[in-house]
Amino acid sequence: MWTLLVLVAQVICVTSVAHADDTSSMSALLERLHALEGRERAHETELAFQRKRLVELESAQAQSKALSTLLDPAAIKKRLIYEDETVAFHATLDGTLEHGHVSQQILFNSVSLNIGGGYDANSGSFTAPMGGLYIFSTSVMSLQGKGAEMHAIIMKNGVEVAAAYANGMGGNMEQGSVTATVRLAKGDMVHVAVGRHDDTGVWGDKLTSFTGCLILPM
């Protein structure tokens, strides 16, 4: 009897120890799990911070590159047109051109603007004082009646660039215009000539004009 009690007591003791060991092991596992979760949250926080820092660095790098481009002397030169690089003119026809023939140069004799001195009112030609991208426009007012069909051609170094058309043969005066962007080298010449038809003409009174401007030195 005494031996049986001793055995039962030993079993109860072993069971209690095993239970205590299991509880201790579970507690240890939970602590490790919480520690791992804490480290994971810390890593996520650090990762988010580093990502934000990377975005900031990339933005700063892009701004630095843009600033370097803006401050580059060559880029500044391209963006700015200095006073001595400004070219522009505007001239009109005061009188009336009659009985014009093909290839006849139109003389726009009244000059209201000639910055850079490129336009010559005596010849009606513009000579580029510097190379660059230019824009030219001509506008013509036709006569009326028979022979009042008019083509005005913008010519570059004798080659046709663009044409304006006006037809007054129906009895009413008509105005036509054209604009062209042209790249010129220094010394290139641009003028407006009669085209397509002989014995034609245009009305003056500042309704027929020729204008040009340097857009970008090159």
Would you kindly provide a brief summary of this structure?
The chain has helices at 2-71, 73-79; strands at residues 88-92, 97-100, 110-115, 119-120, 125-127, 132-142, 149-156, 159-167, 175-184, 189-195, 200-203, 209-217. By secondary structure, the chain is an alpha+beta fold. Strands 1, 2, 3, 6, 9, 11 and 12 form a seven-stranded antiparallel sheet that branches. A five-stranded antiparallel sheet has the order 4-5-10-7-8, with no helix packed on it.
Helix and strand pattern? HHEEEEEEEEEEEE
Point out poorly predicted stretches: 4-9
Envelope shape: elongated
**How far apart are the termini?**
118 Å
Structure overview:
The protein is of the alpha+beta class. The chain contains 2 helices and 12 strands. Strand 7 and strand 8 form a beta hairpin. It starts with a helix and ends with a strand. About 3% of the residues have low confidence.
Which features would summarize this protein structure in a list?
218 residues, five-stranded antiparallel β-sheet, elongated, single chain, alpha+beta, 35% helix, seven-stranded antiparallel β-sheet, 2 helices
Layout of helices and strands, plus pairs?
Blueprint: H1 2-71, H2 73-79, E1 88-92, E2 97-100, E3 110-115, E4 119-120, E5 125-127, E6 132-142, E7 149-156, E8 159-167, E9 175-184, E10 189-195, E11 200-203, E12 209-217
Antiparallel strand pairs: 1-3, 1-12, 2-11, 4-5, 5-10, 6-9, 6-11, 6-12, 7-8, 7-10
